[in-house]
Amino acid sequence: MPTITTEEAIKTTQEQILSAVRQSQEAMVKAITVWSQTVAKAVPELPSQPLADKLPTPEKLVETSFEFAEKLLVAQHKFANDVLAAAAPVMKKTGARNGSKGDAKAS
């Protein structure tokens, strides 16, 4: 029976979670499409509102929000790596770097 590494188990779990998220998102988009098409038939055309053209579109709001989230994630990734680098001297001595016993030999 082949053994699975922790790294492989984590990757498999992440892939399963992403697959489930994608499936639920697809189902939600389909449901919203049906709802939107149905409601659109019943909703009258509204007159334009003053200054409405000055507001960002929903698409622009989504794009700017995700651009910010991407920048934030990059910053957090760098921060996490910087913290690991700063803690490296202790991690090497305690074996926390790879889950093994420390490199230091008992005297």
What would you say this structure looks like, in words?
This protein is mainly alpha-helical and 107 residues long. The chain has helices at residues 6-42, 58-94. The longest helix has 37 residues, at 6-42.
Strand content: under 5%
Rg: 25 Å
- Helix amount, in percent? 55-70%
Query: How would you sum up the major sheet?
Result: none
Q: Which word captures the global form?
A: elongated
SS-derived structural category: mainly alpha
SSE series: HH
Mind sketching the topology for me?
Layout (H helix, E strand, L loop, with lengths): L5 H37 L15 H37 L13
Features:
107 residues, mainly alpha, 69% helix, disordered C terminus
Q: Outline of this structure?
A:
The protein is mainly α and 107 residues long.
